[in-house]
Design a protein that fits this description.
295 residues; single chain; 10 helices; D-Maltodextrin-Binding Protein, domain 2; five-stranded mixed beta sheet; disordered N terminus
């Protein structure tokens, strides 16, 4: 009898500890933070993604709010700690999250052409003499954040394939945002820079020329923790899969969204990102990024 009471007491303590440290289940109507890796500066992030959050708030029984961090890795760490249960980050960030934490890809965005792929682009000013990657030896280069797929991993990989190592560049820096890279190239602060295709296309008429376009890579996933509330996950899945870019109503509704999310979503699975996994061992991610410590 005494032993039985001891066992019950131990179980009650364990249950209490589990409830203390496990991810709390979100109830309908509660505010749920939706994490975003900081692809753009905070003002632009809120401008492009608040309409997306407004859509989810209308189409699901939950109240989502944007959760921003300074660098990509901080968003992933928030997922790992259970501070957020859902987020939007690039392929590299997802892979790193999957390696460390119980997460999975829920959906992946569709591009303008209706496929779940996008490209990384290396840009120069239109008046630049640079024509190909090999021309970048002895020149300056602006990368995006170190965990950025199109802003860092792809360009360093393709530069190496073209025989251009980082040591061959006159100088290089890892900047915070895609729009920061564009501005730096247009101002002549760097000879070339790397951004994702939607950003390159949006700024092409401002004076950019493309000298390299990557092979297609899988689009940005919506990432969820494995222990995220099932009702929350299913309501988000249902709402986003309903988006039909051919429907005029949806076209009007998504017109102010980031173009990356404007054309709808499709189901995602972990193996979609194997192509990036093959590249990652060739590109170190522990680079020092300008402003990483608030500078």
């Amino acid at each position: 009898m005494i032993m039985g009471k001891i066992v019950v007491a131990v179980l009650l303590v364990l249950c209490a500890c589990f409830s203390l440290f496990s991810t709390p289940a979100a109830a309908a109507g509660e505010t749920v933070p939706f994490g975003f890796c900081p692809k753009y500066n905070p003002r632009i992030m809120f401008q492009l993604y608040q309409p997306f959050i407004d859509y989810l708030n209308e189409k699901t029984p939950y109240r989502f709010e944007i959760k921003l961090t300074r660098v990509y890795s901080e968003t992933i760490e928030s997922l790992g700690r259970g501070e957020i249960v859902i987020a939007s980050c690039g392929p590299v960030s997802y892979i790193r999250a999957r390696e460390r934490y119980p997460v999975r890809p829920l959906l992946r965005a569709l591009s303008r052409d209706g496929t779940p792929y996008y490209r990384g682009i290396i840009v120069v000013r239109t008046d630049s003499a640079l024509r190909k990657l090999g021309d970048l030896k002895g020149r300056s280069f602006a990368f995006g954040q170190t965990w950025s797929t199109a802003g860092h991993v792809l360009p360093e990989y393709y530069l190496a394939k073209a025989g251009v190592r980082l040591a061959d560049l006159k100088r290089y820096e890892f900047l915070r945002h895609h729009d920061t890279v564009v501005a730096a190239v247009l101002k002549g602060e760097f000879d070339a820079g790397a951004v994702k295709d939607v950003v390159a296309q949006q700024n092409r008429d401002r004076g950019l020329r493309f000298i390299h376009v990557s092979d297609p890579i899988p689009t940005v996933p919506i990432i969820v923790r494995n222990d995220a509330p099932r009702d929350l996950v299913e309501s988000v899945r249902t709402a986003l899969l309903k988006i039909d870019p051919r429907d005029q109503g949806y076209q009007k509704r998504t017109a102010q969204w980031d173009e990356e999310f404007r054309y709808g979503f499709t189901e995602a699975k972990d193996s979609d990102y194997d192509v990036i996994r093959k590249i990652l061992p060739l590109v170190p991610l522990d680079r020092v990024m300008k402003g990483q410590n608030g500078n």
